[in-house]
Amino acid sequence: MAGAKGLSINLATLRQQFDLQQACEACAKHGLEWVAPWRDQLAKVGAKQAARIIADNGLRVTGLCRGGMFTTDPDAIDDNKRAIDDAATIGADHLVLVVGGLPAGSRDLAAARRKVADGIAAVLPYARSAKLPLAIEPLHPMYAPDRAVINTLAQALDLCDALGDGVGVVLDTYHLWWDPELVPQIARAGRDKRILAHHISDFLVPTRDLLNDRGMMGDGVIDFRGFRRAVEAAGFTGPQEVELFSHDWWAKPGDEVIATCIQRFNAVC
Amino acid sequence: MAGAKGLSINLATLRQQFDLQQACEACAKHGLEWVAPWRDQLAKVGAKQAARIIADNGLRVTGLCRGGMFTTDPDAIDDNKRAIDDAATIGADHLVLVVGGLPAGSRDLAAARRKVADGIAAVLPYARSAKLPLAIEPLHPMYAPDRAVINTLAQALDLCDALGDGVGVVLDTYHLWWDPELVPQIARAGRDKRILAHHISDFLVPTRDLLNDRGMMGDGVIDFRGFRRAVEAAGFTGPQEVELFSHDWWAKPGDEVIATCIQRFNAVC
Fold first, then answer.
1. Is the pTM here over 0.95, yes or no?
2. How far is CA B26 from the centre of its chain?
3. Cβ of residue B71 closer than 8 Å to a chain A Cβ
4. Which residues in chain B touch residue A222, judged by CB atoms under 8 angstroms apart?
5. Which of A34, A225, B51, B210 has the highest count of CB atoms within 10 angstroms of its CB?
6. For residues A126-152, average pLDDT
7. Which DSSP symbol is given to B214?
8. What is the average pLDDT across B173-192?
């Protein structure tokens, strides 16, 4: 059971196999101490019942996924406040923000980036009152059109600088591994106390689908040990959270997926 | 015919439809003044015959594609020297370098990046003697595993700084459009006299294939006019070179592809 210590499972990884209760029971059975649910999983049972399911299985919550979508959701500010409420209800360490891509028909990246900054600023006082940190997740540049116009760690940290307290970053191997500035920017994130989460999944070669072909750790090209060294040197020693969007892994039994996550976490991360 | 002024066609765009001679004849017929051939197209007829075909059609050459592959080709140094010879033979303005991805089985990006710097340094004296500039092309981060470990314009310009004279960069909309540092780095490239080429193609949503689903200008999310303003403000007013790797466009008649390139170049670029 000690093999799962320091690992969190983002429940998107199991979303085709399990509902929230089944996922939490399976994670607990495999010795996990942490999970990261998604809001659609909470919505099916309500946040209070979700909190009970998580606690009854002896689990704690790294992040709630997700708030954000400031560029494309006209109701984004209110929706992010509801997400903050839900995150507080389930005792999440932070709320993950996937900030949103270009609005339909727009080619104005700079305007979309300003809208993100304004959106987070509008939500931040509410998050601070709830003592619920907002975790900006820079996504791989291939998601700039339709998911997130924050695409490098430096850009996310510049935004944190502008926003002040109550906001930090998710360091996700899949999104950041390629960045020539990665190591110095992780060090900067640590100095500034901005690191809220450390997500893991691998980049496959070939990648056959931009969204749903992420790899199990060890199956792709990412140097997880090197990434971890940089994160730990920057002072963050929280759980590593595996988050796999993968048609291949969604097609396998949930118990096999969890067991493989634990095995690979210990072998290569 | 004036509609094609300032446009170059990278002949990868027509590689399924035409051989070098057919492509040059078709481009000339449509009023183009510039093309950019690939080395496999030269190899089929020999560089001297290729030079005659290009000249006989009244065409000039922007770049020869491609040298590079320093990380994966054990013969890279000699092969790049042969590419420089070929580029000089056809009167190319520059040789495009696609520098190479991670070697098979490697996860050491830093080592691959050092190998690229060493490789270009080894070839550079030969390029200088031939008065043939080497154009480093930073590729989109999604190509870091298997095509190029140079992934941002800042990184390419840092490498140029380290290497000195005789080397510059390709600014390709497809690879660079997402970069939060794009505008200041294009300005830097201009100040340092490093801009050798301006490539154009669009980023489609969704992108169904990482390699061969590039879009015709106007069909995706890139702001070509904004990109062009930054490039021209930096002092580069050379041809824009359309380079489409696209199963969709390879399936259309070559004349239709060329006509569409010219029409879109005038409409949105």
1. yes
2. 20
3. no
4. 107
5. A34
6. 98
7. -
8. 98
